[in-house]
Amino acid sequence: MALPQSAYKDREFLAVIGDEHVTDPPDSQKNYLVVDSKTETSTIEGAFESFTRERKDIAIVLINQHIAEKIRAKVDQYNEAFPALLEIPSKDHPYDPEKDSVMKRVRKLFGE
């Protein structure tokens, strides 16, 4: 049975309880990138490549959908099982399933 819209209409944030992981020197890489309006697209692309292609210790990559839009070509081309890539909403940008790369693949798989 589906819940009424009032049960979830205000739920728009993701909470993460986890640890910061920094790889051992000499390269010492963090397992996150904080993006703001000043973050260059090339920096986002570099983090995406690092987390999805180079690092073997990352299991899941969560990316705000509006940030994924900045590197949409890379996100749409990514089709590996690991790390899993999940597009999530942000506080200022609602989730749009029409833009989600995983949802696009699901629709294609079912011939929609």
List the helices and strands and how they pair.
Blueprint: H1 41-54, E1 60-64, H2 65-70, H3 72-77, E2 84-88, H4 101-109
Parallel strand pairs: 1-2
Subunit structure: V-ATPase is a heteromultimeric enzyme composed of a peripheral catalytic V1 complex (components A to H) attached to an integral membrane V0 proton pore complex (components: a, c, c', c'', d, e, f and VOA1).
Membrane topology: Peripheral membrane protein
InterPro entries: ATPase_V1-cplx_f_g_su, ATPase_V1-cplx_fsu_euk, ATPase_V1_fsu_sf
Would you write up a description of this structure?
The chain has four helices and two strands, in the order H-E-H-H-E-H. By secondary structure, the chain is α+β, with helices and mostly antiparallel strands. The chain has a domain at 33-109: Rossmann fold, CATH 3.40.50.10580. Strands 1-2 form a two-stranded parallel ribbon. The two termini are 25 Å apart. The model has no long low-confidence stretch (mean pLDDT 85). GO terms for molecular function: proton-transporting ATPase activity, rotational mechanism. It comes from Saxophila tyrrhenica. It is a peripheral membrane protein. This is V-type proton ATPase subunit F. Keywords: Hydrogen ion transport, Ion transport, Membrane, Transport, Vacuole.
- Low-pLDDT runs of 5+ residues are none
CATH superfamily assignment of the domain at 33-109? ATPase, V1 complex, subunit F
CATH topology of the domain at 33-109: Rossmann fold
Could you name the CATH class of the domain at 33-109?
Alpha Beta
Mean pLDDT: 85
Major beta sheet, specifics? 2 strands, parallel
- Give the helix tally: 4
